[in-house]
Amino acid sequence: MIPKTIIEKQITALSDSLKPITEKMQGRAERDIFLKWAVLSRGKFHCLECAHTWKPDVQKASCKNYMNCTACRGKLKIQQYNQVHFKEIEYWAVLNVCAGFQVVRIICSHKNMKKNCMPTYFHKEVMQHWINSKGEVRTLSLGTNVFSNTYDAWKYYSPLEIRPKNFEDSPKYRINPYKVYAGAQVLDVLKRNGFKGSFYTIAPQVLFTALLKDSYAETLLKTGHTDFLKHYLLSRAQYIRENWQAVKTCFKNNYKVSFFTLWEDYISLLRWFKMDLSIPANVCPENLVQEHDRLVERKRKVQRRLKIKELRSEIQQAQIVYEEQKKQFFGLEFTKENLSISVMESVQDFLEEGDMLRHCVFTNEYHKKESSLILSAKFENKPVETIEVALPSLEVVQCRGTKNKVSPHHKQILKLLNQNLYQIKKRIKNKKAVRAEI
Questions:
Q1: Predicted confidence (pLDDT) per residue in 189-221, tens digit
Q2: DSSP 3-state helix, strand, coil percentages of the chain (rounded to 5)?
Q3: DSSP run (H or E) holding 126
Q4: pLDDT at 137
Q5: CB atoms within 10 A of CB 9
Q6: Whose CA is closest to 329, among 436, 424, 420?
Q7: 227-250 burial by CB neighbour count: b if 16+ within 10 A, else e?
Q8: What's the rounded Cα separation, in Å, for the pair 272 and 101?
Q9: Which residues contact 426 (CB under 8 A, 6 or more apart)?
Q10: HSE, side-chain direction, 13 A CA sphere, residue 329
Q11: Phi first, then psi: what are they for 382, rounded to 5°?
Q12: How far apart are CA 55 and CA 53, in angstroms?
């Protein structure tokens, strides 16, 4: 992209003035960011770090994940597959301050390995994030191969070019380097806003941008609640701002949230019931899962009562259609000892059985399926499974109990049903005969 605005031209010119990444910095990264590898080939271990080869000790396990090289004493990770060439790719970053901008320079490094050879390295600066004191960021990056399956298939021969403002939405922008070399190259305003050198597994460009323009991120960092900060900046589906009152309640009571998604769902339930989010007993439950499930069940019952009122007229209309389609099967019932199977004769039965067994027989409107017959299997007059039989093939499509799982009586239910399918077949023939007479 050709720089057009004044700021784009300024950043492009400043980028050319930056000092190149030194060989000393590259060597330091080679030691820090890459693992050391070994491979077992033809009964020998090959160190891919120093090219040493040795036979494994028969007395010791040779299939461990890690081992030590007998020459360089390096801790080596075992390659799972024996092949000719091995490659590892990692990202690292260097921080600079230039003309009032915080610059995050992202370098992509390749480590190429081969048995009996020393590893070789290739380093290329692929991105530069230029962040001003207001938290506005513009990025320069290499081009990528648009036909690749990966988002970071860099064209290493291409130059660094200015990217549009919406580049922040690209996954390339959020690349998180394995190591960041900062030194003293950080804006003073970042230090004022709480940055002390740690990134807490957050990409530096994401953290810096947030600290400079987002008071919520600044507060979370200054108060030391880095778990909330990581969730706030890294999760695409988070509601920290909406739940800020509940977040402050957690801070005051030193409450540790282990599952943020579940906790935010729980807070949304509290808000639905209009409960006070400043009360610790509400916001900071000892057993989060149990309290969450309790409120879910309570909300479901309330919604069901409200929904039933709305559905009454709909159920009455659906009942008329259902009777026209399935009336010839009404009254069918098969029994054996405490087990019984009967045709469901009203749409209200679908609703009640769906609620009792917690499946979708009503939600997905099985009563509207002309090519299916729905039956209810009961043990001691309590529903245990719902059965769908295809018409006119009489194939048992599904037979499921609570939460779509099979019940302890599943085999007996299928046996009883199969023994009486002929009765359903009779009803189908009778209906055809009546239609023929008409």
A1: 999 999 998 999 999 999 999 999 999 999 999
A2: 40, 25, 40
A3: strand 120-131
A4: 95
A5: 13
A6: 424
A7: ebbbbbbeeeebbbeebeebbebb
A8: 44
A9: none
A10: 27
A11: -115, 130
A12: 7
